[in-house]
Amino acid sequence: MRGRVLILLIIIIIAAGGVGALLLLNSSGDTTDTATPEAGQVQPTAQPGQPTFTPLPPPVTEIVDLVEVVIALQNIPRGSVLTADDIDTFSSNPANALLSIRRLPLSYAPETSIQDPQDLVGCVTRTDIPRESIIVQAQVVPDPNLVAAGLTGGLACQAAAQGLSRVGSDLALFLPPNYTAISVPLDPTGYGQVAYGLKAGDRVDVYMSFLFIDVDEEFQTRKPNTINYVTVTDEGLIEFSEARLGREEPSQIVDGVVVGPSEDRQRPRLVTQRTVTDALVLHVGWVPEDGVIYGASPTPFETPAAVIDPTQAAADPVGAILTLESIIGTDYIPVIMVLGMTPQDALTVTWAIDAEIPVRYGLRPVVADDTVFGPGSTTAPVTLLYILETYGIDPANDAAKLPFAIEPAVEDIRRFDLRNLRTFVDFTAGFQAGN
Question: How many angstroms separate the CA atoms of 258 and 248, rounded?
Answer without folding.
Answer: 4
